[in-house]
Write a structure and sequence with these properties.
It contains 12 helices and 15 strands. The chain is an alpha/beta fold. Helix 1 packs across helix 2 and helix 3 runs parallel beside helix 4.
Length: 388
C-alpha cells in the first residue's frame, strides 16, 4: 500500500509489520517520531507489543537485550549522543549474538551541540559487531528494517543490525513509500524462534566471563559471523524481490560506472544528489560515476574492489571523520587496494558535518578536486580555510 510519509513513520510502520514483542527506546531528536508512532500503535492496540518506557538510551538497550535473550523479537532506535550512551550495551548485544534491530537516525555528535545530520554517530560504533545498513531513501529505509530481521535472526548468523537513515533529510522528509501487506511480510519473515534463550526450565547464561583461553576464539567467531552475511544479504535481497516485486538493499549499488573515469564512493541520502549531478555532468561530456555503499559492516571489500578496479580516479565522500586520521570509509577503500598491481588515484573528502549542505555544486567541486593531487582528509566547504 502506497502512502506519502516522513521517513520516521515509514520506519515505524515497517518495524510494526515485523511484529516485535518488545520495543524500548528513549526520545532524542531526530529519532523521536519513530518510537512515538510505535508507542501509539501499542497503546491503541494496533500493535501487540510491550512498549517499555525507560530513563535513558542505556536502559533502552539493556531492556531489549534482556527481552531478546528471553526469546522475544525486539526493536529500538536512537541518534547521536543517545547512540553513544547505548554503546556499552551495543557491544554486549553483539558479543552475546543477539539479533536486535535498531534504527539509527544519523545526527552529529557533540560538542558543540548540533542536532543536524551527518554520520559520525553510527560510524563511532562501527566496530561494535553490529551489521550496518545505510539507506538512500525512505522506501529503502523501510525495506531495510524488514530485511534486517531476516538477516540478523538467521540461525547461522544471530547478529544485531543497525539500519541508518539520515536525520531530517530522510527522517523528516516526505516521500511516497510502498509499505507491504502484513501477510506478505509474514511470508518473508518467519517467527522468531531462537535455538538458545533464557528459560527457567533450562537454566543458562549469556555473556559470561571469558579469560585469555577463550576470548580470542569468541571474537573470531563473531568476526566470521559478520563475514558470513556477505553471502546471505544478496540471497535475502533476491527473495525480497520475489515477494515484494522490487530490488532494495544489498551490499553495494553502482551508478553509471561502466565507463566512468572518475567515481565517488559514498553512503546514505547524499547519493541521490550525487546521481543527479552525475547525470548533468554526463550531458556535459564528463564520464563520472557512483559506488554507493549500502552494507558498511561487514565491509564488502571484494565487491567494492571488483566494481572499482578499472576506475582511474576515486573520490571517497565521508560524512564522518576519524579525528586525527581520515574519513572511515576512505580508510576502508584504501585498504582493499593495498598490494594490488594497479592502484587508482584515491582521495578522501569530508563533507556535510553538522548538517552542512551538500549540493550539486559541492559534488562538482569534489570531482574537480579529484583532478588535483591526492588528499586523504580534504574538507569540503570550509569557510575561509584552504585545505587539501
Amino acid at each position: 500500500m502506497k502512502d506519502f510519509l516522513v521517513g520516521s513513520e515509514a520506519v515505524a510502520r515497517a518495524a510494526a509489520l515485523c511484529k516485535p514483542g518488545v520495543i524500548s527506546a528513549y526520545p532524542i531528536t531526530p529519532q523521536t517520531i519513530i518510537v512515538e508512532s510505535l508507542a501509539q500503535m501499542a497503546a491503541d492496540g494496533r500493535l501487540k507489543s510491550q512498549f517499555i518506557n525507560v530513563e535513558s538510551e542505556h536502559s533502552a538497550a539493556s531492556a531489549v537485550l534482556g527481552a531478546v535473550a528471553a526469546g522475544e523479537r525486539v526493536f529500538t532506535a536512537s541518534s547521536s549522543q543517545g547512540l553513544i550512551l547505548m554503546s556499552e550495551v551495543l557491544f554486549n548485544i553483539a558479543g552475546m549474538r543477539m539479533p536486535v534491530v535498531l534504527a539509527c537516525v544519523n545526527r552529529s555528535i557533540s560538542a558543540p551541540i548540533n542536532i543536524w545530520n551527518d554520520q559520525q554517530d553510527s560510524m563511532a560504533v562501527r566496530d561494535s559487531g553490529w551489521l550496518q545498513f545505510y539507506a538512500e531513501s525512505n522506501q529503502e529505509a523501510a525495506d531495510l528494517i524488514i530485511q534486517a530481521y531476516r538477516v540478523g535472526e538467521d540461525p547461522k548468523i544471530c547478529l544485531p543490525v543497525m539500519v541508518c537513515l539520515d536525520g531530517y533529510i530522510l527522517s523528516h522528509g516526505y516521500e511516497t513509500v510502498d509499505l507491504p501487506e502484513e501477510k506478505a511480510v509474514a511470508s518473508f519473515l518467519p517467527p522468531f524462534r531462537p535455538a538458545e534463550k533464557l528459560d527457567p526450565a533450562n537454566p543458562k547464561s549469556f555473556g559470561l566471563l571469558a579469560g585469555p583461553d577463550y576470548y580470542l576464539e569468541i571474537r573470531h567467531d563473531l568476526h566470521q559471523a559478520n563475514k558470513k552475511t556477505l553471502s546471505l544479504i544478496p540471497e535475502v535481497v533476491s527473495e525480497f524481490k520475489k515477494v515484494f516485486g522490487r530490488t532494495s538493499g544489498g551490499l553495494i549499488e553502482t551508478y553509471q560506472l561502466e565507463d566512468a573515469e572518475c567515481v565517488i564512493v559514498a553512503a546514505g541520502s547524499v547519493c541521490g544528489t550525487i546521481k543527479e549531478t552525475i547525470d548533468a555532468l554526463r550531458k556535459e561530456g564528463t564520464k563520472t560515476g557512483l559506488l554507493r555503499l549500502i552494507t558498511y559492516r561487514p565491509f564488502p571489500g571484494e565487491q567494492v574492489y571488483d566494481a572499482l578496479k578499472n576506475v582511474p580516479a576515486i573520490a571517497v565522500l565521508d560524512k564522518a571523520i576519524s579525528l586525527g586520521a581520515t574519513g572511515p570509509i576512505y580508510a576502508d577503500i584504501k585498504t582493499i587496494f593495498q598490494g594490488k598491481k594497479a592502484i587508482p588515484k584515491i582521495s578522501g573528502f569530508i563533507a556535510g558535518l553538522g548538517g552542512r549542505d551538500i549540493t550539486p555544486d559541492t559534488i562538482r567541486d569534489v570531482f574537480k578536486r579529484l583532478a588535483g593531487p591526492e588528499v586523504d582528509d580534504g574538507f569540503v566547504g570550509l569557510k575561509g580555510v584552504t585545505n587539501g
